[in-house]
Each structure stands twice: as C-alpha cells, then as structure tokens.
Amino acid sequence: MKIYIGYDQAESEAYRVAVKTLANYTNTVPEPLDSDRLQATGLLRRAVDKRGQMYDLASNAPCSTEFAVSRFLVPILCQSGWALFTDCDVVFMANPRALMALVEEDKAVMVVKHNHHGEGLKMGGMTQTEYPRKNWSSVMLFNCDHPANKRLTIQDVNVRPGRDLHAFYWLHDSEIGELPAEWNWLVGVTEEPVHTKIAHFTHGGPWIADWQAAEHDGLWQDAANG
C-alpha cells in the first residue's frame, strides 16, 4: 500500500507532524502531493488565483489547500494496488497498513462516510465550500486496479469543478466502500472514537498563526514534540 499526503507550503509544519507520526508505526515513506512538482510535470494544470485565499477558476470557488484537487491524481500516480491519501493536518495513531484487513476488492475507493456540513470558516479564516459528501475525501483508500477509477482521467482532474471530484462523481454509490469512523476522526467536529487511528484536525490547529486554543490541541502538540 502506497501512502500519499497532501502538501501545502502554508501547512508545512502540519505535514511534518503527519509524516513524523506515520513513521511511529511504519517505515513506509509517504509521497507528498506537491502542487509545484505536479505542475512542473504537466499533471496538474488547473488555473488558480493565489491573490489572497486561493480561488479555483474551474470550480468558481475558493479552495483552502494547494492539494484540494491534486488528491484525485492518486489512482493515476499509483497505477496499481491500493493507495492511501490523507490531508496533511492529521496525526497517525495506528499503523495505516491495518486498513488492508478491511479492503473490499469490489470497491473503487473506501472512506469514512461523514455527515458533515461546512460552518463557513476554517483553518485561519479560510472560507469553507459546501458540497455533497464533505470530508469523505480527506482520507481515501483507493483501489487503483478497479476499472471504475479508469473513468477518472487527468483531463477530468484538471477541468472538473472540485465539488464534483469531492463528491466522487465518477463512481456509483455501490463502488464507494465504508471505513470505520476511527480512521478519520474530525477533531472538534465528530464524536471521538474509542480507538482513534487517524485524528484529522480539519478546522486547523496550533501550527496556525494566531490559533485560538481548542480542546484537543494537546494531542497535536504532543505529536509535534514527542
């Protein structure tokens, strides 16, 4: 299983902690989804206005991270086998390879199926965009051999509105498998699982300048300093 983690220059410290906590459980070195590198190779060609908050022109909507759309290149980058994508604002609390015991070969992707809606602002004042299946795409286990993922092309990733991609428009409902909630706990949003495997600080955390202290900050700080 290959592992990809979204990389954003503005959240480099969050990325560092995600990689650090991953290393506590596995020697797998993750692949950073770096938009600059993907653009240099021609895989990512979306027009983005970076004056102020990033604005994705194809979506006609703001985006809160540089990897908001590039995550959907994972099946193309990996090509075969299973591949895990996570946002960078996560803390690994278990070996993600345990996910391989949960895979369903008839599914094209497996996710925690949150019933989460945007609250207007997140991460340092960034505007949240409302779309179906919100936060399902923040942790995704892709079956890169599944024929349904062949429907998702480089062209689609570059021209489709982000809201369609995050809603898994290229898949039938039956092709989306479900992971237990502990594999994508939305910190401060959803109920904390008994045995958290991935803590996802979707609203931000102590790595953000002028961050207002929140209930679970200690979890991220312990991971950063441990």
Radius of gyration: 16 Å
The assigned structural class equals alpha/beta
Q: What coarse outline follows from CA principal-axis ratios? A: globular
Helix/strand order: EHEHEEEHEEEEEEHHEEEH
How much helix is in the residues? 10-25%
Biggest sheet architecture: 6 strands, mixed
* Beta-strand fraction estimate: 15-25%
Strand order of the largest sheet: 2-1-6-11-8-12
Number of domains: 1
CATH class: Alpha Beta
Tell me the number of helical segments per DSSP (H or I, 4 or more residues long). Answer: 6
The H-level CATH homologous superfamily, spelled out, is Spore Coat Polysaccharide Biosynthesis Protein SpsA, Chain A
How many β strands by DSSP? Answer: 14
CATH architecture: Alpha-Beta Complex
Mean pLDDT: 93
* Ends distance: 26 Å
- CATH fold node name: Spore Coat Polysaccharide Biosynthesis Protein SpsA, Chain A
- Low-pLDDT runs of 5+ residues are none
Topology record:
Elements: E1 2-7, H1 12-23, E2 31-34, H2 35-40, E3 48-49, E4 55-56, E5 61-62, H3 74-78, E6 82-86, E7 90-92, E8 109-111, E9 121-122, E10 126-127, E11 139-143, H4 154-159, H5 162-166, E12 176-178, E13 185-186, E14 198-200, H6 217-225
Parallel strand pairs: 1-2, 1-6, 8-12, 13-14
Antiparallel strand pairs: 3-4, 4-5, 6-11, 7-14, 8-11, 9-10
Can you offer a commentary on this structure?
With 226 residues, the protein is an alpha/beta fold. The chain has one domain (2-225): Alpha-Beta Complex (Spore Coat Polysaccharide Biosynthesis Protein SpsA, Chain A). The protein is 19% helix and 19% strand. It contains 6 helices and 14 strands. The longest helix is centred in the N-terminal third of the chain and has 12 residues, at 12-23. It is globular. The mean pLDDT is 93.
